[in-house]
Amino acid sequence: MTIYVENETQTEFPFDTEALTRRVAEAVLDAEGCPYETEINVLITDGEGIRRYNREYREIDRETDVLSFPNIPFEREADFSVVEDNISDYFQPDSGELILGDIILSADRIGSQAESYGHSRKREFAFLVAHSMLHLCGYDHETPGEAAVMEKKQEEILSGLGFTRDCADE
Question: Against a cut of 0.85, is the pTM above it?
Answer without folding.
Answer: yes
